[in-house]
Amino acid sequence: MTQTLHIVGGGMAGSEAAWQAAQAGIPVVIHEMRPKVETFAHQTGKLAEMVCSNSFRSDDHEQNAVGLLHWEMREAGGLIMEMADTHQLPAGGALAVDREAFSQGVTDRLRAHPLITVEEGEITSLPDDGHWIFATGPLTSTALGEAIAAETSAESLAFFDAIAPIVYADTVDMTKAWMQSRYDKGETEEERTAYLNCPMTKEQYEAFIDALLASDKTEFHEGETAGYFDGCLPIEVMADRGRETLRFGPMKPVGLTNAHDPENKPYAVVQLRRDNKLGTLFNIVGFQTKMKYGAQTDVFRMIPGLEDAKFARLGGIHRNTFMNSPTLLDEQMRLKSRPNIRFAGQITGVEGYVESAAMGLLAARFAIAEIKGTPLPPLPQDTAMGALVHHITGGAEAKTFQPMNVNFGLFRPVDGLKGGRKGRKDRYKAYTDRAKAAWKEWLSA
């Protein structure tokens, strides 16, 4: 095999794509601009660095579309899922990881592979020949973004991602906080006590909302618009939609019992999830924010148990660019105007670590088949990967295209099953059973 696959971007999608191709015997060059060219959100030059949450979300492969995507990636020998499993942290029914150990693990495996070369430096233009996958993610450099916009004759779309703060665990007041996963979910005691919980009374909640709404926020530059993805809204934006929004969102008190006062149900609860294996760092779940740093410390220390909290990282906000993929990419994720180039990851309009890595996996498998001259059968739309790639490459309405998580709403109905909430459990199981059979058949081909 003499044809090399070039991958631009060493995030989740690029790392997974590189692994898939190299495991298939294809020489790979990963072009990663970090650490020579830094971004607002990244802290290191490691591959597959996690910059927002440390969670891959639900691992339930029978009742959850994200969990099904986990299953499909494991079946395909995915490196991202292998490293997530290796560096897993207790998180109830979710798959959370020690972010530093995870990133180091991915980096070590890729750099040690005999067919993979990592070249540090920025790619600023679209190549005319060769086999390429662009997986530059939400923080695509300005120069490359301009090159993509010039090629596609379309304005770059953009929304804004917010990052949640991280707290040092030993600065939390455990006379007020307690450890418990929602509904005591998990098979082990460690999983059932994976989250740190801070309760609020109605008065404390109202005061918190007042402070949140009055706080100093990051201002946008002229010409920027704050188009947020609904799955990653800053808490101030949620609070501005209604005073009870947070209490029915990330601060919902359901499924939790205050260990210090079990007879009284909290009005609201702030949850923190372990961020590293040592348990020394916890991130505040769902607390993405665009508050200025000084305001963050003042407002977050109003939370019972966090009055003296020390922050390992404060929250922030950054631009997140993505393409209008339904108009620009074909069904094999190739740029229609330059079919030697594929796109993968968040830049294609998927949202989330898992979805990004999955699109990297698919782009690589399409490229492998093309390089080897062994065409693949059509990707089954009834798989999680098939449903997602179908959505971004043609199933979505181009005029209103926005970033999308994988969800069962993207799946074709199963004949004979009723809709509605009552039939949901059977319906979801039917979706996942059908998907697993189709995915296995596609992989074997």
UniProtKB/TrEMBL annotation:
Under InterPro entries, the record lists: FAD/NAD-bd_sf (IPR036188), MnmG-rel (IPR002218), MnmG-rel_CS (IPR020595), MnmG_N (IPR040131), TrmFO (IPR004417)
GO CC annotation: what is one?
cytosol
Entry keyword Transport: no
Q: Name the positions where FAD binds.
A: 9-14
Known catalytic reactions: uridine(54) in tRNA + (6R)-5,10-methylene-5,6,7,8-tetrahydrofolate + NADPH + H(+) = 5-methyluridine(54) in tRNA + (6S)-5,6,7,8-tetrahydrofolate + NADP(+); uridine(54) in tRNA + (6R)-5,10-methylene-5,6,7,8-tetrahydrofolate + NADH + H(+) = 5-methyluridine(54) in tRNA + (6S)-5,6,7,8-tetrahydrofolate + NAD(+)
User: Ranges for the MnmG N-terminal domain?
Assistant: 5-374
Cofactor(s) recorded in Swiss-Prot or TrEMBL: FAD
- Entry annotated with the keyword tRNA processing: yes
Q: Which UniProt key words apply to this protein? A: Cytoplasm, FAD, Flavoprotein, Methyltransferase, NAD, NADP, Transferase, tRNA processing
Coarsely, its chief localization is: cytoplasm
UniProt lists the family membership as follows: Belongs to the MnmG family. TrmFO subfamily.
Protein name per Swiss-Prot or TrEMBL: Methylenetetrahydrofolate--tRNA-(uracil-5-)-methyltransferase TrmFO
